[in-house]
Amino acid sequence: MASVGVTRRLMFAVPCLTASGAVVRSAVAADGDFYAFLSGVGREAAARGIRGPTIELALRNTEFLPHVIELDRRQPERQLSFGQYLEKVVTAERLDSARRQLADNRVLLNGIWRRFNVEPRFIVALWGMESDFGKKMGNYMVVSALATLAYDARRSAYFRGELISALRILDEGHMPVGKMTGSWAGAMGQCQFMPSTFLGYAVDYDGDGRRDIWNDRADVLASIANFIARLGWHGGESWGREVTLPAGFDARYAGLDLRRPTDEWSSLGVRSIDASPLPVRESRASLVVPDGMGGPAFLIYDNFRTIMKWNKSVYFAAAVGYLADRMVHG
Question: What CATH topology corresponds to 16-64+138-188?
Fold first, then answer.
């Protein structure tokens, strides 16, 4: 694939900081603009209270990564249907792994459940969807990836903020700079948290003084639970259910903006996927048809919307619920 833009690399020999936090040039930068950008980041970080040695160490070998720009620009080659997406992300292997992780971490998950009121199966489902239970965290150096995206004009302000947040994480000692790896977009660890999300929601569950979402399973699972709880999770309530629709069902009833009591959906002929009546105990629900009328249909509740605050995708939210239910109900 052709490279997008000009390759830029910044290397420091023995960098140091002025009192104002500016990086003093001690080697020839291959790209002065990127160097100037990093100097500005260093000054801003220092002004925000991040210590000079942290800034120096983090920016010393920061590189512009052209491949990150390629990935940011790349459009999907084709749009997957929900069924195709589900086959891709809820594989038999992932389902088996989810059941195993649910069993192997039962004591830990139950403790987290009591603290955050998030059921273990949903914690495990989010863990599996985000990083395949820690197997797919990404191997990009987070500072370089974020610096590249912040230097690029498309979403500069957002990624500059994330870069400053990453420097703060390093300054607080949660992870050494050489081990802070993640996705090409800067999502980190087994939770795939952006740095600002880490600062707001990551948890030091085992009390060792570090919030380690890369290696510490207790911190990983508790951080997932804390984040989804803070987004508005209602413990003990359903996320939704797959349903069948009667022939000729009016498509105007579908959509996240329309909510009806369960008995009204029943009166319109909506049934559970096994054709049984809908549970009357469930609250007002919306009808979601990810692939349009004729495809899979779901009645969804507030917890579905909470998952969508984590990832603004109907496909993702439905897959999390599907995986969570399948690992315990078959």
Answer: Helicase, Ruva Protein; domain 3 (1.10.8)
